[in-house]
Every structure is written in C-alpha cells, then in structure tokens.
C-alpha cells in the first residue's frame, strides 16, 4: 500500500505489518539522506476518515537503550496521497542540544554506527492526525525556491523602507526619503536579514504581532466559549516562551538537586504543564489570588518568586520563599496562598478567598487549582456548592494530567469529564498543552466571574513528564513510549516555539538567546540554593503563633528543652 | 553568637551553630540501631521478613482463612506505596484487594459500613497525616456504634492501617504521629508495633479483635527492621505492654520507633551514668496496660516517657497523669516526658525536634539528680 523513495535510490516497498494498523520499514545509510518521498501505491486506498501518519525512528546513541525514538513527520490521506519530507533535521545530532525538551535526553556519543532509520506508518483517524505537529524543518516548501526567496526579499525591503516613512507637515500622506532608498545600508540590512544574522535588525523586521488560533474547547452549560483566535504581540510571545522555558529548566534543576540529595523529602515536578501556569498568568494580574496544590513550583515562579528563592526553599535555606520552613509543597508569595500538601484541602480555602474578594468588592478573581486525583475529594464538592450558592468569583481549575500518582483517571473517577463535574457550575475543557489556548480560556473565565455570573470550572488537560514525585519513576503505570510521544508531539514549549517561528513573531536567534539566559539564571540559582545559609535554629519554634501570643508576653513553646531556650 | 557557645558546652558534641550546619552532613530522622528479636519456637517455621513483609504476611493469612476479608485503600492493588500489599491482588483477586479513589473520609466511612455488615475489613490510609478527613467517621461512627445501638450493631471487624512517624525527610505532612488524637476515643483500639514479629502478631490480633482497631505502622521501620518471622498466623495480646529490659532505677516508656531510641538511651545511661533502666514498649495505646506500667514505676520510682508527637496533650500526658495518680508514694522524682516540640513537624532541624538520645539522657540526669 505504501512506498518510499530516498533520493538517488531504488523505491522501497518492503513495509512489514507489525500491528493491525501499523507498518514499518528500515532505510539503511540514512545519515546520507536528506529527503524522503512517501506515496500511496494506489493498490488500495486508505479507509474512509483515516490518514496514514508517518513517523521516523532514529536510533539513540549510547548510553541510551537502542530502541528508536519516534518522531511524527507528517501524514498522507487519500486526497493527498504523496508527500516529500525533509529528514535531515530530524536526526538527533542536528538537534539543538540547548533545546528545552531535549536537555535531559541528549547524550553525546559516536554516531558513525547508528545510520539506519526506521520508518513507521500508522493508520489513524484523520482528526487525531490533523492535530499533530511535525517538528520544524520537515515540511518541504511547495513554492519554487527562487520565487519564495524573492518574495521574502521584497517583503523585507518594503518593511525596512517603510520604517523611514515620515509625514511632512501639511502633507496628505507619508513619504520615504530618497537617502533611505539609495543608501547602501538598506541593501546590507536586508541581506543580513536574509542570512539570518544580526539580532537587532531581525527583531525589528519581524511581525510585531500575529493572530494565532486557539485549540478547540469543550463547553458545559455555556452558550459560547472563548475566542478561537487571539492577537499575540512579539513581546508577549517572548515573555510566554521565557517563562515556560524558565519553569522547565528550574524543574529540571530541582530534579537534579534531588538526585544529589541536596533536596530531600518530597518534590513534585511541573515539567510538561508549563502552558497552564504561564497561560493563565498572562491574563491574571498580581492582585488576583491563586491557590494550588503541591505541584506548585511553576506557579510559585509565575506568581513572582524568583528561581533562586524557589530552589532555596527546596534546599531548606533561609533565602527560601518560606524561610526554608515549608519546603517543596509550601511556597508562598503575595496573593499566592501556596503550596498545599493535603489533597483537595486547598479548594474550600480558595472559595473562602473568593468570598473575601467579593465581600471587599475587589474586582478580582480567585484561581483555585486542584488535580484529577483531588477531584474525587468530598470537600471539593462542598466548595462548589458554596461558590455557586453565593456567586463567588472563583475560577476552579482542574489540572488533569491523567494520573493521580500512579492511578489513571479512568480507574479513579466514575466520570473523567472533570469540566462537567461542577454540575451546576459552567465548565470549559481546555487543551492545556498550548499556552494561547489556556490564555484565552482564562480571559473568558475571568470575564465570566467579574461580570457577576458566579464561579466557573476549567479543566486543563495537560501532562507531566516526570513521575508523581521524585520517588516515582513514572513508568510503572504508563509506558515510556507514551511519555516520549507526548514530549515529541505535544510539548508546550516546542510547539509554541514552532508557532512563533512560523508566524515570524520572534527570530530563532532570540529564542536561542532566551534559552541561554534562562540557563544562566537557573544555574546561578542552583549555586545559591546549594551554598546559601541555612535558617537560624530558632526558626524551629517561631511562627507557631503570632510572636508572642497576645496577652502572654512570656509565652514559650512547650517541649523545647531549657538549653534550646537559652539561645534566645 | 555567644548563646550558641553556651549551648555547645551543655550539649557536648552536638553544635547548634548555624554555620556548622552547612559544613557538616547531619544525619536526619530518628537515630537508632534496630535490634532484631526472635519469635517463640512454638510458632513454627520462620522466614526472613522486614516490617512491610510481615504486614503482607498477616494480610495474606487473613485473606486465606477468612472468606469475608477484603483489603482496600489508595494504590494497594499494585502493592502499595510502602509495599505492604504486594502480591495480594494477584493471589486473591481484584474483588478482595482493590484500590479506592483519593477520598479518606469515603474510605473509612465505606469501611465502617462494610464492617457493620459483618465482613472483615482492612482499610489502608496511605499516610497517617491524611487520616484527618476521616476523623469524623472514626470519632462519631466507628467508636460509638456498639454503645449507641445498645450492642445491636458494631463495626468490630474493622481494622484501619496507616503509616506514621518521622522518617528523616518527611517534613510537615509525611511524619506525623496522630495516636494522641485517637487515644481520646473510647470504643476503638490503637496499636503500634515495634518490629516485624510484633507487627504480624499485633495486626492479626487487631483483625481478629471484636472492636474496631487502628493500627499505626512506624514507616521508618518498614525496611530497616528485619527479623525471622513465623510464616503461619499467630496473635500477640492487645492491651498488654512488654518489658524489654529489666532495670531498677528508671522506667523508660515508649512505643514504635521510639522503643529503639530508648534501647540506646538505656545503654548510654548504664555506661555514662551508671543508671539501670527498665524499658517498656506500650504496644497498645488504647486501652493501655496500666498494670505493667504501674508495677514498673512503683519498683523504680522514676519514669521517663518519650514520643515523637508534640508534648502538650500527647499520649505521654495521659501516661504521666495516670502514673502519678497510682504511683505517687513510690515516686522519687516527677514524671518526665521528652517529646516533639509544640510545633508542626518541621521541614528543617528535624533532629532537634525529635526526642533523641541526648534529650532523653539529659532528662534521665534530671530524674536521677532530683
């Protein structure tokens, strides 16, 4: 049914059927191949409504196990029975080792032996395949190169020249001075752009904003949902990218510190879920309170706690945001109420905070987050009832990462449609692997609450790459393939990066610079977290009550022995 | 500063100077060496087991011999986060060994109902720190069922298991010792084992006991305590404390992990102070063995109670009040308690919070010198 041609070689049709809907084939000496042409041979068409998703599996260099790492590169359908894919850039050695989601997986090693690539074709429904994003640089251009090149050159020249346009006093329209047109710097600037160099030129020549589409939402007891398109400026784009990259890097650093035993106890990492906190924070401001559960480091950062203070709190230093007394699960900041260890306990608290906002007539919403595991706690439903009864401006957010510790959602919940479980509270299901989708959902929710319509429930469907906590490898209840495929096909940072490059909102060089500066920031924070001072011993018994409890100026915490007290 | 130097002088080698923390690697958690015990020969063939394996063995015996028995809780089907239920689902089926959703109040309420209907029910709460949403069910339903129904109904076939206690890095929500709250509920029983042989016998006793039992397992002992445990079922008495070391000068009372810390304290008291200590493991918190405790304190005249839970209102307070009431004329010194501070279980400085050997030894010095 399928065939593939590598340039300069015989056509290959030797696909092996390995499953009801899966076929594979090996291409030898693929390190020399730059393009692959896939086509349906016409012997039999694809079933109705199906597409053939094409994957490449490059072997991993040692010390990784030899199973191939699969990446999606494109698809064929009956309507589009042939396609050319550029595969040179999918080779792992060509990948940028600084790329956020490859940081941990990239191993150095010799590539000379690992030259075969496996091709996999999987027949899947068209809707599934349509939503998948191939990596950058795999789609062949359909326009002739010369035409495309000239087009870009002309566009950049027009952009450059129009930036000199001025309107002389009394004139009806603007004019570009001849000096701008004839000066050699005009040509030079444009050539620089086309060669992709010169950060300053590049950034001022790109689009300053773009309209991006959001992924589809699902509605519960709502007539209409959030916008299907959103305007994103290049400044916003840079900020979202930077914040997500920072959270990712910070969590990776936390994981490493834990493995070095600089952090002990419990550490729940947020990697994979970055789009949720960054997307929501894009619409909230620092006066909107937020309360969440223990997978809180990402939110702690977006709520304004610097990476240094987060990591220091993890290592129990005095420079930590809770003076080292709370640890991973108890980080706080102004209008960030933590950081809560007991599952579900934060939800009624969030309703209470929302009530305080309403009582004080602050035009604010309280964002109350919980996970799919907590969604089965009784107190969550108690909070829903109170919030709806009293029309509280509370945005309940279920961060559904599909697993409550090691239990898949289907095994814990009679209904996994978490966005409907508020019953009488309207709900929205959000694909939370896309930051703009999250942002628009949050905008909708905030408007809803502030217009006095009461609470609303958002289900952010997301994914965590690591296990539940650092004690959980995360692979005994889900396959490595599942985790890999999420990382490759739906990673929030990688897909946002590609969106930005395609929309020409931000240049690749800038993204690289952001990555580098994020890395520097986190590395410095790690150093501080390892070397900063531990808290003063009196922190062991301070802040139990207000100090001292009023009316008892000589109050001392009982149980502390005499010798400890003499330190006061 | 200067105050720290005076501390150092009194404490000896342990230094509270903050700067030295960053230089030294302090060990965390309760400091003890586990002393394995051996089982009565009459109990038959044994197998090497640690504490969680002893628990699994007890549950295995129960499921094998009692067709009504079920075991459930969060994540128990794959074996449990502390591996106490490994292999049971495969052996007895998913109708008898199954997972519950994340709902402690629901789990315990559901368990009480199942027990009231007559089935042997063993429910697990994943960490003792999480038991509080279920506290209403325990206080208002489980403990009062027999009494309020005039013995018409009871939930005696209920056993609830939960891991408790300090582990070195558990911080606020994975280290608590809640036995004090439960000691205040007439109608239930509260049991805490000190090692694998004790664990299996006491758990089987709880499961067979005609009253609802709350069985708290010291989580730090799950792996570190290893003994040759009888493979068949056997029971140890509930409501009976055990004298582990006989002595003449001071009675040391503890339970769970603290028993092992106190063993070391007894040894140090002998070698450093020449004081002979009698060590008692309470084993059952409620109803506690008054006879053994009073007999011992009347003999020695001095009593030190130690527990990880905070001082005020801890179980030690009940013991101390009862001891002074029954042994007043025999007491040479006031009853002392060494316990966790009246603070939440800390994220930092855990080894200063716990009733460690040095603090206990200092209390013994005070008792002797009174």
TrEMBL record, chain A:
<dbReference type="Pfam" id="PF05603">
    <property type="entry name" value="Hikeshi-like_N"/>
</dbReference>
<dbReference type="GO" id="GO:0004739">
    <property type="term" value="F:pyruvate dehydrogenase (acetyl-transferring) activity"/>
</dbReference>
<keyword id="KW-0670">Pyruvate</keyword>
<keyword id="KW-0786">Thiamine pyrophosphate</keyword>
<dbReference type="InterPro" id="IPR001017">
    <property type="entry name" value="DH_E1"/>
</dbReference>
<feature type="domain" description="Dehydrogenase E1 component">
    <location>
        <begin position="242"/>
        <end position="537"/>
    </location>
</feature>
<keyword id="KW-0560">Oxidoreductase</keyword>
<protein>
    <recommendedName>
        <fullName>Pyruvate dehydrogenase E1 component subunit alpha</fullName>
        <ecNumber>1.2.4.1</ecNumber>
    </recommendedName>
</protein>
<feature type="domain" description="Hikeshi-like N-terminal">
    <location>
        <begin position="5"/>
        <end position="133"/>
    </location>
</feature>
<keyword id="KW-0809">Transit peptide</keyword>
<dbReference type="InterPro" id="IPR008493">
    <property type="entry name" value="Hikeshi-like_N"/>
</dbReference>
<dbReference type="InterPro" id="IPR017597">
    <property type="entry name" value="Pyrv_DH_E1_asu_subgrp-y"/>
</dbReference>
<feature type="domain" description="Hikeshi-like C-terminal">
    <location>
        <begin position="146"/>
        <end position="182"/>
    </location>
</feature>
<dbReference type="InterPro" id="IPR029061">
    <property type="entry name" value="THDP-binding"/>
</dbReference>
<comment type="function">
    <text>The pyruvate dehydrogenase complex catalyzes the overall conversion of pyruvate to acetyl-CoA and CO(2).</text>
</comment>
<dbReference type="GO" id="GO:0006086">
    <property type="term" value="P:pyruvate decarboxylation to acetyl-CoA"/>
</dbReference>
<dbReference type="Pfam" id="PF21057">
    <property type="entry name" value="Hikeshi-like_C"/>
</dbReference>
<dbReference type="InterPro" id="IPR050642">
    <property type="entry name" value="PDH_E1_Alpha_Subunit"/>
</dbReference>
<dbReference type="Pfam" id="PF00676">
    <property type="entry name" value="E1_dh"/>
</dbReference>
<dbReference type="InterPro" id="IPR048364">
    <property type="entry name" value="Hikeshi-like_C"/>
</dbReference>
Automatic annotation (TrEMBL), chain B:
<dbReference type="GO" id="GO:0009083">
    <property type="term" value="P:branched-chain amino acid catabolic process"/>
</dbReference>
<dbReference type="InterPro" id="IPR029061">
    <property type="entry name" value="THDP-binding"/>
</dbReference>
<dbReference type="InterPro" id="IPR005475">
    <property type="entry name" value="Transketolase-like_Pyr-bd"/>
</dbReference>
<dbReference type="GO" id="GO:0003863">
    <property type="term" value="F:branched-chain 2-oxo acid dehydrogenase activity"/>
</dbReference>
<keyword id="KW-0560">Oxidoreductase</keyword>
<dbReference type="Pfam" id="PF02779">
    <property type="entry name" value="Transket_pyr"/>
</dbReference>
<dbReference type="GO" id="GO:0007584">
    <property type="term" value="P:response to nutrient"/>
</dbReference>
<feature type="domain" description="Transketolase-like pyrimidine-binding">
    <location>
        <begin position="49"/>
        <end position="224"/>
    </location>
</feature>
<dbReference type="InterPro" id="IPR009014">
    <property type="entry name" value="Transketo_C/PFOR_II"/>
</dbReference>
<dbReference type="Pfam" id="PF02780">
    <property type="entry name" value="Transketolase_C"/>
</dbReference>
<dbReference type="InterPro" id="IPR033248">
    <property type="entry name" value="Transketolase_C"/>
</dbReference>
<protein>
    <recommendedName>
        <fullName>Pyruvate dehydrogenase E1 component subunit beta, mitochondrial</fullName>
        <ecNumber>1.2.4.4</ecNumber>
    </recommendedName>
</protein>
């Amino acid at each position: 049914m399928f065939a593939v041609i590598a340039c300069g070689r015989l056509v290959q049709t030797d696909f092996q059927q390995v499953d009801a809907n899966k076929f594979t084939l090996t291409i030898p000496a693929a390190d020399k191949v730059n393009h692959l042409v896939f086509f349906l041979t016409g012997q039999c068409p694809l079933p109705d409504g199906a597409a053939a998703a094409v994957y490449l599996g490059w072997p991993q260099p040692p010390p990784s196990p030899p199973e191939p790492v699969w990446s999606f590169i494109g698809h064929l359908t009956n309507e589009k029975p042939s396609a050319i894919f550029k595969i040179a850039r999918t080779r792992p050695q060509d990948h940028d080792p600084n790329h956020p989601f490859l940081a941990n997986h990239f191993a150095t090693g010799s590539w000379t032996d690992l030259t075969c690539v496996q091709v996999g074709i999987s027949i899947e429904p068209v809707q599934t395949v349509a939503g998948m994003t191939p990596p950058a640089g795999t789609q062949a251009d359909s326009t002739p190169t010369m035409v495309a090149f000239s087009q870009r050159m002309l566009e950049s020249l027009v952009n450059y020249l129009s930036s000199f346009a001025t309107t002389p006093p009394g004139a009806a329209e603007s004019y570009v001075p001849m000096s701008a047109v004839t000066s050699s710097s005009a040509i030079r600037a444009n050539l620089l752009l086309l060669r992709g160099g010169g950060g300053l030129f590049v950034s001022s020549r790109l689009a300053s904003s773009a309209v991006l589409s959001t992924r589809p939402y699902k509605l519960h007891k709502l007539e209409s949902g959030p916008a299907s398109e959103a305007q994103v400026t290049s400044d916003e784009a840079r900020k979202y990218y930077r914040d997500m990259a920072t959270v990712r890097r910070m969590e990776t650093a936390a994981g490493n510190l834990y493995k070095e035993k600089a952090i002990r106890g419990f550490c729940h990492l947020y990697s994979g879920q970055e789009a949720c906190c960054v997307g929501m924070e894009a619409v909230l401001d620092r006066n909107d309170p937020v309360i969440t559960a223990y997978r809180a480091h990402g939110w702690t950062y977006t709520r304004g706690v610097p990476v240094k203070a987060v990591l220091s709190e993890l290592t129990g230093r005095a420079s930590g945001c809770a003076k080292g007394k709370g640890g991973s699960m108890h980080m706080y900041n102004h209008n960030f109420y933590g950081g809560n260890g007991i599952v579900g306990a934060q939800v009624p608290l969030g309703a209470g905070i929302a009530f305080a906002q309403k009582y004080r007539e602050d035009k604010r919403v309280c964002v109350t987050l919980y996970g799919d595991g907590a969604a089965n706690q009784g107190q969550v439903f108690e909070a829903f009832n109170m919030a709806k009864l009293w029309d509280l401006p509370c945005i309940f957010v279920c961060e559904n990462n599909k697993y409550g510790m090691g239990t898949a959602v289907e095994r814990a919940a009679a209904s996994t449609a978490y966005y409907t479980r508020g019953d009488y509270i309207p709900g929205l299901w959000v694909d939370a692997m896309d930051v703009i989708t999250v942002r628009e959902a949050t905008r909708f929710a905030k408007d809803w609450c502030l217009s006095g319509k009461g609470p609303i429930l958002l289900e952010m469907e997301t994914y965590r790459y690591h296990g539940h906590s650092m004690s959980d490898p995360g692979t005994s209840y889900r396959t490595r393939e599942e985790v890999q495929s999420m990382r490759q096909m739906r990673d929030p940072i990688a897909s946002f990066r590609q969106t930005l490059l395609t929309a020409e909102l931000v240049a690749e060089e800038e993204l690289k610079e952001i990555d580098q500066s994020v890395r520097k920031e986190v590395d410095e924070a790690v150093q501080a977290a390892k070397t900063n001072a531990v808290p003063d011993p009196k922190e062991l018994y301070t802040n139990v009550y207000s100090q001292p409890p009023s009316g008892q100026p000589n109050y001392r915490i009982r149980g502390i022995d005499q010798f400890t007290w003499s330190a006061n | 500063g200067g105050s720290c130097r005076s501390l150092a002088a009194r404490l000896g080698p342990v230094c509270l100077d903050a700067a030295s923390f960053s230089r030294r690697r302090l060990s965390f958690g309760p400091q003890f060496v586990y002393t394995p015990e051996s089982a009565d020969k009459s109990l038959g063939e044994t197998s090497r087991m640690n504490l969680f394996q002893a628990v699994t063995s007890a549950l295995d015996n129960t499921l094998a011999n009692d067709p009504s028995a079920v075991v459930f809780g969060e994540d128990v089907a794959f074996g449990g986060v502390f591996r106490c239920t490994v292999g049971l689902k495969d052996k007895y089926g998913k109708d008898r060994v199954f997972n519950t959703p994340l709902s402690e109040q629901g789990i315990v309420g559901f368990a009480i109902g199942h027990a009231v209907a007559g089935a042997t029910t063993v429910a697990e709460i994943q960490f003792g720190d999480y038991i509080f949403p279920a506290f209403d069910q325990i206080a208002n339903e489980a403990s009062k069922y027999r009494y309020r129904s005039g013995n018409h109904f009871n939930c005696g076939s209920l056993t609830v298991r939960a891991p408790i206690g300090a582990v070195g890095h558990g911080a606020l929500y994975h280290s608590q010792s809640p036995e004090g709250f439960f000691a205040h509920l007439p109608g239930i029983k509260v049991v805490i084992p000190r090692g694998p042989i004790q664990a299996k016998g006491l758990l089987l006793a709880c499961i067979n006991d005609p009253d609802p039992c709350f069985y708290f397992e010291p989580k730090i002992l799950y792996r570190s305590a290893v003994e040759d445990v009888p493979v068949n079922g056997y029971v140890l008495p509930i409501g009976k404390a055990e004298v582990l070391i006989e002595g003449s000068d001071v009675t040391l009372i503890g339970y769970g992990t603290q028993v092992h810390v106190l063993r070391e304290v007894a040894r140090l008291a002998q070698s450093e102070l020449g004081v002979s200590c009698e060590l008692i493991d309470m084993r059952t918190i409620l109803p506690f063995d008054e006879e053994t405790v009073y007999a011992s304190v009347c003999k020695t005249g001095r009593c030190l109670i130690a527990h990880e839970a905070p001082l005020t209102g801890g179980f030690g307070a009940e013991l101390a009040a009862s001891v002074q009431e029954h042994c007043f004329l025999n007491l040479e010194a006031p009853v002392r308690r060494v316990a966790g501070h009246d603070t939440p279980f800390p994220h930092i400085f855990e080894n200063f919070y716990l009733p460690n050997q040095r603090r206990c030894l200092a209390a013994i010095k005070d008792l002797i010198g009174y």
